[in-house]
Amino acid sequence: MIPVSLLVCVLAGWCAVYLADTLLRSSPTHRIGYESWLARRGLMLSPFHVRWQTTIFNRLFAYCARIHPRALYLWFSSGLVFGVVAMLASVVLLVKTLQQTLAQMTTDNPHIGAQQALQVVVPGVNLPTSHLAYFFLALLLSGVIHELGHAVAALREQVRVNGFGMFVFVVYPGAFVDLFTTHLNIVSPAQQLRIFCAGVWHNFVLCVAALAFLFLLPLFLFPLYSSGAGALVTEVAQGSAADWPRGLSAGDIVTALEECPVAGVEDWNSCLSHLSHTPQTGYCVPAASLQPSWAHGRAFKRLDGTMDCCSNNSLTDLCFSYVKPHTADREYACMPVRKMVTGSRVCRGDHDCNADAGLAVCVTPSLQNQTRFIRVAHPPGTHMLFVGYPPHLQHAVSLTNFVPRFGFLHLDLPVFLETFCKYVFSLSGALAVVNSVPCFALDGQWMLNALLEATLAGVVADRQKRELMGFFLLLAGSSLLAANVALGLWMVTAR
Fold this sequence. Notes:
The protein is an alpha+beta fold. Helix content is 49%, strand content 18%. The chain is elongated.
């Protein structure tokens, strides 16, 4: 469910804005001055909606529209082709997403939801509150670039731009351009298509730019940050299994999980996934260490059927199982875990320990089915010893691939750039897909109308028939998008 604190803050903020606006508009003393102040600044207020419009960017748009006319023609013509293809692709993608959502509603398989290319995002539910700044900044940037495309394309096609603006609806920011409708209606359908497709085209280009920047980020940061020597810890969740005196802390560089080397965040994730899906490894220890003086425990079964022999909930001891030398009997011993595994190599059986000097035995931690014992190497410190469910360790520790070369550099700068680029890529791509859908009130409506006029004018002479055809196509596209949004919201908030 949506966090109550977030709802309270949003509602309280909008109530304060609406109350102040109502009081000022009803005041005989301040009403005229307040309304003229709003008009001078291009502000419009309504419940849960604030809008700002200006003409200060018109000269910039006009300048951009005059840069190399031939190149701009090719640029926006490419956008036209992309827009038409994206319109068809968006419908296919929405149909597929709707099928996946319906399948997820009838099954408990979590992998079906993870495969969806499009998902409804609700702040505080499936969007971490710590990422709200990334989300809103990326959404605003994507919207501005989208409208910049419309404005420049319109001016190039001799359509006047009345102004540019931004708005906030509830919590979602956005942008818009106000085009002169008379000019827009008299240009040819092909010109209209270039104007209407420019927004989704620029969103696609922004996606590519964000992906390229993300791919080249190690090169851009190379003078200040190194990579490939391990995963740098930037944050450890307070109270988690990794947050203790011999755990991890910000600034540590993780180089290995057990025998799995870690050169970066991708290796960290893949190693944890591998360790969680493979049987628990053992450790080669001298047979002489397995003496009664090391507190052999009396084994007992846990509720899940696994064996335990440490009944005192010790933070330093762990139950190990092994095959007694020269016999086939399985024994259990509760022993000091750090002393047992420090410097020991991993094994799957006693035969893996035959190369060790003297008689060595392969001892294996006796743990619950999904629990694993993992040694986390972060030199020069001693190994962190983790006992638990591997995904818990993955969620408890935040890491980055980039290690500062100088002490004054902030650990979070590469994380900010990486995360922001990922959000720009995702949200700009989502805007391109959604605005391409032939749906009422979106770019897809005008793109479809212009496309029908450009292609069917010579086939279907009656304009009303073309408009009727466009209406039913828009109705189908709107229903498809509404179904995806409604079911997506239900899946996110109700389950």
